[in-house]
Design a protein that fits this description.
single chain, 218 residues, mainly beta, 5-stranded antiparallel β-sheet, 4-stranded antiparallel β-sheet, 3 helices, 12 strands, elongated
Length: 218
């Protein structure tokens, strides 16, 4: 006999005191300007203006809407090296081909950002999780490539091909016990370094932080 799912979930769909639970992360993105940035603060700017859902899924600045709650159980830090100097971010390709020998700095930038610094979560003005270095917050997903280089001198214009994609790797960083974030409660996450420093490429990078967990809403 087919189940009547409409009746089964009627209470969940109509009772304002009943919260539905979604396995859905909170994420936010900021740029790291080489030789300028010493701290990045996440989850303080919502979607709107130039910030889209590619950047963040925060609906409000630094808090969850009324009737919503999030229980964080893991953290990922994604580093995406850039290709230009300045405040604006332009993606660096992990696979390069050029007539001139290019210095591959994708992996170098990832390592420079990850082997130092620490991460801190602040909920309702209370600090949690002063932990580092940042490579401990390894992402579960990413591009998979094998480093390598090749140079074709026989071509009309000598071509150099290089690949040096890299990301943090290791055991997922789990929050045990889990960290609850209630509605209308101020929270943020910061990445902190002792001082501003230059990336090997000198270019601006982009960093995305993902809070893994369960999202509750009415």
């Amino acid at each position: 006999m087919a189940r009547d799912y409409r009746a089964l979930y009627a209470k969940r769909l109509t009772d304002p005191n009943y919260k539905e639970a979604l396995r859905q992360p909170l994420y936010d993105t900021q740029v790291f300007v080489s030789n300028t940035t010493a701290q990045l603060r996440f989850f303080t700017s919502p979607v709107g203006g130039t910030r889209t859902f590619e950047d963040t899924n925060m609906q409000l600045a630094g808090q969850l809407p009324k009737g919503h709650k999030f229980v964080a159980d893991g953290i990922e830090v994604h580093v995406m090296p850039g290709s230009v100097v300045g405040a604006a971010y332009t993606r660096q390709q992990p696979f390069l081909q050029s007539a001139a020998v290019a210095t591959p700095n994708f992996a170098n930038d990832v390592w420079a950002l990850g082997e130092r610094g620490y991460l801190e979560v602040i909920v309702n003005s209370k600090p949690y999780l002063d932990d580092g270095p940042l490579y401990r917050f390894a992402p579960a997903q990413g591009l998979v490539m094998a480093p390598g280089a090749d140079q074709n001198l026989a071509a009309a214009a000598a071509q150099t091909i290089s690949c040096d994609y890299a990301r943090f790797a290791g055991r997922p960083y789990l929050l045990l016990p889990e960290l609850p974030i209630d509605e209308n409660t101020a929270f943020s996450l910061t990445l902190n370094w002792a001082a501003a420093f230059a990336l090997p490429s000198t270019f601006t990078a982009k960093i995305k932080v993902i809070l893994l967990g369960t999202y509750f809403r009415n």
